């Protein structure tokens, strides 16, 4: 007879974790193999990493997202010796972003970069959208709940200030990914439990 403490697959929630500020410019190095090992120690299941920028798919029976974020972030800071802010999203949120592609009607050229930014909390910023940066290189086209969609046009500026503008408008509890990365995460999620 199975123990009551056994976690059945149906009890597991699938999450995507976005880590902020690791492996950038040779600073705050976090090897993905070590990262996975530390997450296993926290009892997380079916862990997969994508790219070196800190994108993780995993499963957990814990449904308290903020508590889970705090537990993971605290453990990683103790392990690696520097703060590692984390923003979690249920896998369904990512799937929904891809299903309702916010960039579908936007022009695509070699100079255009599409970005998705995730907020930990809504800081009450009520800017009028679309927001266009003064140098015309950066436009925030839409904000949905705790997600911001923006476009960078490298033909407009050699030194775009997109990330600085996002932090100024929405605070530092934010992390940004290229739309291509979100699409790659979506492809992994679509394989079910075989993403590892």
Report on this model:
There is one protein chain. The protein is an alpha+beta fold and 196 residues long. It is built from 5 helices and 9 strands, in the order βαββαβαββββαβα. The chain has helices at 32-41, 65-80, 91-99, 162-170, 179-189, and strands spanning 13-19, 45-50, 55-60, 86-90, 112-119, 131-132, 138-144, 147-153, 174-178. A hairpin with a 4-residue loop joins strand 2 (45-50) and strand 3. The longest helix has 16 residues, at 65-80. Mean pLDDT is 89; it is low at 1-8.
Per-chain topology:
Elements: E1 13-19, H1 32-41, E2 45-50, E3 55-60, H2 65-80, E4 86-90, H3 91-99, E5 112-119, E6 131-132, E7 138-144, E8 147-153, H4 162-170, E9 174-178, H5 179-189
Antiparallel strand pairs: 1-3, 1-4, 2-3, 5-8, 5-9, 6-7, 7-8
Give the terminus-to-terminus CA distance.
Answer: 30 Å
Q: What's the shape? A: globular
**What percent of residues are in strands?**
25-35%
Following the backbone from N to C, one meets helices and strands in this order, namely EHEEHEHEEEEHEH
| Alpha-carbon Rg, integer | 18 Å
What does the oligomeric state look like here?
A: single chain
Number of helices: 5
Question: Helices and strands: which structural class?
Answer: alpha+beta
**Low-pLDDT segments, ≥5 res:** 1-8
Question: What is the strand tally?
Answer: 9
Mean pLDDT: 89
Estimated helix fraction = 25-40%
Largest beta sheet: strand ordering = 6-7-8-5-9
The largest β sheet comes out as: 5 strands, antiparallel
